[in-house]
Amino acid sequence: MKNILISVITGLVFSLAGKAQLADAIYYPNIKTAQLFPAGNQLGYPILSLNSSDRLELHFDDLDANVKNYSYTYQLCNADWTPVMLSSFDFIKGFSYQRINTYRISSVAFTRYTHYSAVVPDNNCAPSRSGNYILKVFLNGDTSKLAFTKRFMVVDNQATITAQIQQPFNGEIFRTWQKIPFQVTLSDRLQVMNHLQQVKVVIMQNNRWDNALVNVRPTFFSGRKLDFNTEDQIVMPGGKEWRWLDLRSFRLQSDRVAKANYNTRSTEIFVKPDVDRSQQRFVYYRDINGMYTIETTESLNPYWQTDYATVHFTYIPPDNVPFANRDIYLIGQLTNYNLNDSAKMTFNNETRAYERTLFLKQGYYNYNYVTIDRNDKKRAASYEYTEGNFWDTENMYTILVYYRALAGRADELVGVGYVSSLHGRQGIQ
Predict the structure, then answer these.
(1) Range 65-68 contact pairs with CB under 8 angstroms and sequence separation of 24 or more
(2) DSSP calls for 269-306
(3) In this structure, what CATH number is given to the domain that contains residue 59?
(4) Based on the domain organization, do 113 and 247 belong to the same domain?
(5) How do 308-316 and 274-275 pair as beta strands?
(6) Under DSSP, is residue 11 helix (H, G, I), strand (E, B) or coil?
(7) Which domain range does residue 414 map to?
(8) What ranges make up the beta strands (E) of 16-124?
(9) Could you report the per-residue pLDDT of 304-324, keeping only the tens digit for each?
């Protein structure tokens, strides 16, 4: 009876959580390296097929280095990541939350931490319908003690998506942006009476939500086929191949490390200063599109035997002059793509450079720099002043198709499509 009452209260709290958008976030400073990815693939985006055997891996570290009672639950969201007005009974099959029972105290590493892991979903606690979900990890069975949140999706495949990448026809963006024309074919199971109201489409570039194209409208539709080919909605800046930092070994300093300080209890690493690349020629090289992997070149378990280091990033602006009316941010999965104070660079008047310090675990990282106009209310991130935009850049695009029944109370994810900007390009495999 007590568990049922808790579930009811939890469902009511979540369903009345308001219309704020939910995102990947860490609320406790002792939580580090929170990851959620398809089983065995750190570079995959966490998407499950409804009622399938698909599983995700959840990993995170607690720097307090003791054993705590962590649990997780799910929150179903609409296509715009606002919580749905439903009880948890409507989208969770089984118990409303599940305790995380697998943990390991770190060994070998100077930094003491407890590594927690789980396989999601558990048979006793699983999403029961398709859509956008927030995985909420909290302490001591109290959902108000939220440790961190991670986005993931559940898809009920009822739409077929075919896409390609083209250069835009607009001469102003012909060499710097990429166009993503695509076609969606809906299943007979979907009762679509009004395409513009019932179907929503989102385009993500390299798994980023901060610059995703939302509410993309079809150019025209006929029956169950929707064509998207209008150049004012399906174009995105190309950016540039991501910068990299190899921290798989702290003893062996990689090509991007300027120097390292080794203490008896900690490690401090200084990354070689970065500069503006917007005026440099484009050079293709394989990257991991802004993500990171936790791994090591040594014979250690990467999750609970690798160490942490204080890593110093430096960006030197042109002529050592700070940007006028612009803030600069370090962006990538290492900062959860969040453009907040945790990723903001600070200008040092003595060194005449921007600086940011992160506490990072051993692994291989991609990152870039973006600027935001302080007068821009939309806070749109731009590569124009730091990296540059190039049509040639390799980007991975994810196309998400959402459907809502005429009397439905939540957006369902009914189709996921992928296309690389290198797909079909002559001379490239």
Answers:
(1) 65/105, 65/106, 65/112, 65/113, 65/114, 66/114, 67/103, 67/114, 68/114, 68/139, 68/140
(2) EEEPPEE--TTSPP------TT-EE---SSSS-TTTT-
(3) 2.60.40
(4) no
(5) parallel
(6) helix
(7) 159-238+392-420
(8) 25-26, 31-38, 47-49, 56-62, 70-77, 92-94, 98-99, 102-105, 114-120
(9) 999 999 999 999 999 999 999
Three-state secondary structure call for residue 89: helix
Same structural domain, 253 and 203: no
Extract the tokens encoding 87: 């009880």
Burial-class residue 43 by CB neighbours within 10 Å (0-12, 13-18, 19+): middle
Q: Which pLDDT does position 20 carry in this prediction?
A: 78
Amino acid, res. 271: V
Residue 254 lies in a domain: yes
How much of the chain is helix, strand and coil, in % rounded to 5? 5, 45, 50
Burial 409-428 (b: 16+ CB within 10 A, else e): ebbbbbbbbebbbeeeeeee
94-129: pLDDT as tens digits:
999 999 999 999 999 999 999 999 999 999 999 999
Give pTM, 2 decimals: 0.92
- Tell me the one-letter amino acid at 149: T
Residue 117 is assigned to a structural domain of this protein? yes
